[in-house]
What does this fold into?
Amino acid sequence: MEGFKIRKMEEADVCEVLEIENEHIGKTNKQTILDTLANDVLSYYVLEKDNHVIGFYELSIISPEAELFDIAVSKNFQGKGFGKILMQSVIETCKQSAINTIFLEVNSINKKAICLYEQFGFKPYAERKNYYGENLNAILMKKQM
Ligand SMILES: CC(C)(COP(=O)(O)OP(=O)(O)OC[C@H]1O[C@@H](n2cnc3c(N)ncnc32)[C@H](O)[C@@H]1OP(=O)(O)O)[C@@H](O)C(=O)NCCC(=O)NCCS
It folds into this structure.
């Protein structure tokens, strides 16, 4: 796969990031994403292809721990390996910050994401019952580096 790069989000990317977020959760707004540009702990990284953002991840780093708050690929580009490319970048970013554990939380019905996380060595360690609604549990996963 060619013609893409992953880099830290810039102000000009915010609208495209918001669009992708809205495709799957829509819990955020432009200002919330913009605010992360001035945040030392929380950062967005974007996957750019042909001058467009087609995916991103949102990572908080409080060394020696990190938390992956979100990862998403634009609908039209899903199933082509970009999720894996983003996850590789998550791991690489964490290595550079000497992280020893990465945490995340995922909806138990999100089998695609769970499969992806398992492939990268994340293991479930706790569950929050009905966190997302009736019978929609949150699964907490972590990866030891
Ligand atoms: C989860 C997500 C980021 C995966 O991105 P993607 O680009 O579609 O994933 P890839 O093509 O790189 O596939 C990576 C792995 O995901 C899993 N996967 C992908 N499509 C799948 C499907 N239809 N069913 C089950 N697993 C699937 C597989 O483990 C796959 O690895 P494999 O191809 O070696 O089997 C993407 O589906 C997405 O943006 N979903 C909406 C946002 C979201 O739910 N994010 C997680 C929040 S916790």
